[in-house]
Design goal:
Layout (H helix, E strand, L loop, with lengths): L13 E4 L1 E4 L2 E8 L17 H25 L7 H13 L2 H14 L3 H17 L4 H22 L12 E4 L4 H8 L5 E4 L7 H9 L3 E3 L4 H4 L5 E5 L4 E4 L3 H23 L14 E6 L5 H7 L4 E5 L13 H14 L5 E4 L26 H7 L1 H14 L5 E5 L5 H20 L9 E6 L2 H5 L1 H4 L5 E4 L1 H9 L17 H17 L3 E3 L10 H7 L3 E4 L4 H9 L3 H11 L5 H15 L1 H7 L3
Parallel strand pairs: 3-4, 4-5, 5-6, 9-10, 9-16, 10-11, 11-12, 12-13, 13-14, 14-15
Antiparallel strand pairs: 1-8, 2-6, 3-7, 7-8
Helix pairs in contact: 1-2, 1-3, 1-5, 3-4, 4-5, 9-23, 11-13, 13-14, 19-21
Amino acid sequence: MKKKKTAPEKKKELIVRGIPASPGIAIGPAFLYAEPSYTPEIRLISRKRVPTEIKRFREAIRASQNYLSKIKNESPDQLSQEYQEILQTQIDILNDDIFLKEVEQLIQDELYDAPYATYKVFRKKMGVFQNLPNEYFRDRALDIQNLKRLILRHLLGKKLNVILKDKSIIVTDNLSPADTIRLHHHSILGFCTNFGGKNSHTAIIARSLGVPAVVGTEIVTTLVSPGDELIVDGSQGVVIIHPTPETKQEYEQKQKKFILIEKSLLKEASLPARTKDGHKVKVYANIEFIEELEAIRQSGAEGIGLYRTEGLFMGGNGLPSEEQQFRNYLEIARAFKEHSVVIRTLDVGGDKIMPDFVTIPERNPFLGWRAIRFCLDHKEIFLPQLKAILRANQFGNLKILLPMVSSLEEIEQFQDVFQEAQQALKAENQSFNPDIEIGIMVEIPSAALLAEHFARKVDFFSIGTNDLIQYTLAVDRANEKISHLYNHFHPAVIQLIKHVIDVGKEQNIPVSMCGEMAGDPVATPLLLGLGLDRFSAVHSVIPEIKQIIRNVSLKECEQLAQQALTLVKAEDVQKLCENFYAKHFSVSTELKKPE
């Protein structure tokens, strides 16, 4: 008697959540991309062999540099600016003598062979960055890891073959710039990774290519097999494995709507941000990397509301020189010479950058030695930055923004250093433009409460909601256990924002907002109603923010704000704003509202 054939077991739909890194929806088969870990054995060498191993290491470095240069030159046109700069950063790290001499010193002193010495030094460097709390700097650990693998690949004579026959969604731990370029030639549909954040190379390149991506899932590679059907929702940070026919049909409809909405928004991005009753609003862009300039122009931004300069200080060659900073600031000033460009001074501290400056870890780095406090204590870093900004102010459109100011004394100390920078430039016969506005980030409750006094000392305010929420609510936004308490719709936060905006109007100084709340479309009508008329957000959301402004009246936004100010629970304020958004912008609500 013949056995009956059993139908193949139906796989259960699985949902994995991660970090939304690049918007859009991808549907297709999974391609598992895994590069060997290249963990070498500990091997000791004779003293006689030291020169040979050092030579071997240097040859691997040259081969790695040549490989990255080749990838850089072969990169597709749409990556010509942004991605080539990323690759150049990695090439620069390989040119860093101090960094590389650590490996050679280990070969000479400990008699390790070249592969193990490379592995040991790069693993140590990677660990330093992985343990920093700031997401951007944790992502830089991936640079070190990618370079470690590349050098070891050349040292060990390994080859990496990628066979990708069909359009697929790449599933991997993380990707290096070279990996992404290599895979791009195969027309990938999307990315999902275990590691990385919004500033990882996978995220940056996915956005530049317009490819959906979800990063930081932690477990996706353990759940996916080659060829499994996936849905990647880069807007919501969701990966669906083995979607049911119903789920797939639902997301196919979302995909079509998303494409139509994106095209429509970009088509109208250059239109002014003016409410239906004629109230004019300025919408600026936040920028971290100079390679974002072209995307910012296309977004319809009316200038730069926040240039985060930390990225300049994280290259492989140590601190950037005054000249390097000058060229960087001048390029941005020139790109937006008809508009204002706000440059925030170095916003770092011992908790998240330059560990060489910190010998003892801080107990609570978020309340510690960072931002303006760090810079005032390190004039050898602060003075060159201020001098570079003054020199780059050739079009008179630059402004200086000071982060994490908590007291009037800090403003007075800054003014002394600022005068010192000008005097140094005069002594050096350097050309500079001293006609420059100085503003402060209002991101500490003390600054918000003393706004009236600060308004007499500075030229403008920029509300940094990310830290303002954190400090007002005593919620560490990096702590997953209490992250649900972190909410920019909290009534206490709303009242502080309202107070700062009111003081700005009374004292006749501009108030902008550059935190993530300014880029939340659901919060836009509320902020308008509170009196905010200067927004600064990431370029990808600017077309939508401008469209929302054009489709509401200031009067109805003020009524929304008045109602919100009577509420005492964050969930009630959020629900009120979500209902308003859904009523006025139902076309895109399905895609934009978190599930």
